[in-house]
Structure formats: C-alpha cells, structure tokens
C-alpha cells in the first residue's frame, strides 16, 4: 500500500510541478538524539548521479548550532539496491556558502580540504557504502585514507556554529566545515538515485552517533499532496 501512495504522490507532483530532467536528486533527512553526547542532532544527505559520477552533499542542520565535538557530522552510510558498483571517492569540496574554520575565530574558503576521509566501510553493520572520517569505532578503519591529511577530529558543524566571535565549542582540533560539504565518487554508471536506500547519518567518532533517515517517499508524499492542494485551490478560484 505504501508503494501505491508513493506512485500517486509522484504522479501528482509530475502533473502540477515543472520537472528538471537534466538534474535529478534525492534527499534523505534525519534527526534524533545523538547517544554520544545525549543531545539533538540533525542532518541531510543529497545524492545526484550524472553519467559515471555520484555527487553527495552532506549538511549538518542541527539547531541552533553544533555545541560539542561529539555532535559534529562525521559521515554517512548507504546501500544501493539491486547493484554493486565499484564506487571510489574522487573529490571533496565546499558546498555553497560553506566555510572552513581553522579556529573559533578564523575561516577561509580555500581547497584542498584538510582532514581524513575514507570510502570503504570494512567490517561494519551500517551499510554497503559510505564516506566518513577515519575511526568511528572501527566502522571505517579498514579503509585507506583516500583524501586528506589523516587528522581524525574533523567533520561538518551546523550553520552559525562559528560566527567570528569566541563561541564556546568542544572541538579539540580544527578545521571544521560549517554547514555542508560535497563529495564526488566515480563508478556510478548504470545506477539511479532511486536505488539509494538505508541512509544512515553519522555524528561524532565513538561509534554511537547513528541517526537513521526515513525513505524519501514520505517527503515526496507531502510535496505531492501540497502541490495537488494548491492546484485544486487555484482551479476552484
């Protein structure tokens, strides 16, 4: 029944909203209590596939701000249904107006990004694919460092965590990305965004900061219903 609702919502959305066929993407959002620090955390992961390239944008949306190092977004894990592509991390970049904070008072927007990222899960119950800072209770230790300088205390903090003033923050090392970060992978040819599943957001580094995301179908239903209601209101007028 849930699948039927998804199809109806998608049909409604296609009928009442313009579609950009050149660029398709799917977003997974999640929130909850981060067990590592016992406070709320939230974030999103947006996937877009173009040819052989998978682009993944991670965003820390914790409100009002990331207050401790244990609430830094440190990665994401995901599955790809009915396929086993050989993904390889090929690039990292700042996304949008994001900054690299090298201390609580100083930032820049220059690449390459410092830090340590791996795209191999090794022995992990999280998912078949992922990208994260090294560590996380061994979940990513089996992978080699693909990009970065090997510093484990690194990740994404929420917008407004640093604002150029002396903001209290529990991060023992810098730099940190503020707001969002973009990763690119090769090897995505032959798969589509609809095959992305079981997306898990990772916060902190001790292996407990796991937040599951619902399937994007639920968000699609809300968007489709809202667009459909707006169309009906316009038709009545």
Structure description:
By secondary structure, this protein is α+β, with helices and mostly antiparallel strands. It has one domain (30-214). It is built from two helices and 15 strands. The strands form three sheets. A six-stranded antiparallel beta sheet has the order 10-8-9-4-14-15, with no helix packed on it. It has a five-stranded antiparallel beta sheet with strand order 1-2-3-13-5, with no helix packed on it. Strands 7-6-12-11 form a four-stranded mixed beta sheet, with no helix packed on it. It is globular.
What level of helicity do the residues show? Answer: 10-25%
Order of helices and strands: HEEEEEEEEEEEEEEEH
Low-confidence stretches: 1-22, 218-229
Distance between the termini: 33 Å
User: Which structural category fits the helices and strands?
Assistant: alpha+beta
How many domains make up the coordinates?
1
Question: Numbering strands along the chain, what is their spatial order in the largest sheet?
Answer: 10-8-9-4-14-15
Biggest beta sheet attributes:
6 strands, antiparallel
Strand content: 25-35%
What is Rg? 19 Å
Mean pLDDT: 77
- Oligomer state equals single chain
Helical segment count:
2
Shape: globular
Task: Write down how many β-strands occur, each being a DSSP E stretch of 2 or more residues.
Answer: 15
């Amino acid at each position: 029944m849930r699948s039927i609702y998804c199809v109806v919502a998608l049909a409604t959305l296609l009928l009442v909203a313009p579609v950009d066929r050149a660029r398709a993407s799917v977003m997974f959002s999640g929130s909850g209590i981060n067990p590592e620090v016992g406070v709320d955390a939230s974030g999103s992961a947006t996937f877009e596939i173009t040819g052989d390239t998978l682009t993944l944008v991670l965003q820390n949306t914790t409100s009002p701000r990331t207050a401790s190092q244990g609430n830094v977004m440190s990665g994401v894990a995901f599955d790809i249904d009915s396929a086993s592509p050989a993904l390889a991390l090929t690039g990292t970049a700042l996304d949008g107006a994001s900054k690299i904070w090298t201390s609580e008072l100083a930032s820049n927007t220059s690449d390459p990004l410092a830090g340590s990222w791996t795209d191999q899960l090794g022995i992990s119950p999280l998912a078949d694919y992922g990208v994260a800072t090294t560590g996380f209770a061994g979940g990513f230790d089996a992978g080699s460092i693909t990009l970065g300088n090997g510093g484990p205390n690194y990740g994404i903090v929420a917008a407004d965590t640093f604002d150029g003033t002396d903001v209290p923050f529990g991060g023992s090392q810098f730099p940190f990305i503020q707001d969002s970060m973009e990763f690119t992978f090769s090897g995505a040819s032959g798969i589509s965004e609809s095959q992305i599943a079981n997306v898990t957001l990772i916060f902190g580094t001790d292996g407990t900061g796991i937040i599951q995301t619902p399937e994007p179908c639920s968000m699609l239903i809300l968007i489709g219903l809202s667009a459909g209601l707006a169309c009906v209101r316009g038709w009545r007028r």
